Amino acid sequence: MPVSLLVCEISSPLRLCRKMRGCGTVRDAIAQDLSERRDTMAIKLHRCRNVWLKIQPHPCWRVQRALDEQGVDYELVKGPVRRGKRDDLERLSGQRIYPVIEFEDGSVYRAESKDMAARIRSGQLRAQAGPSVPPASG
Q: CATH number for the domain including 88?
């Protein structure tokens, strides 16, 4: 694969330019970028479809805003508003309540939104990622 294509897929030109100042070669900059990406764990934020509702008491927005403020990269997974239609969320987390954070390793984190936001802001979100929540029996 040509280096120019690899650079475009891996990093933005500005980010690569910043890395080049300390590295010296494009290959070193790409290797450094890949190493940084391996160190970060991709997460998914499962939340309701009401993304337009941006008020403090809304639990989904509270957690999403905390992730944004801390600069955490995440994928937004919008689910059904009605609890009766949240079968996939229940299979994932064992309950039908938003928001839920799913880590790359398959583990999930669900708590009261205030507690989730506080944990995110404290920088302990990834450090305390535990085992997957067992699915609800039934």
A: 3.40.30.10
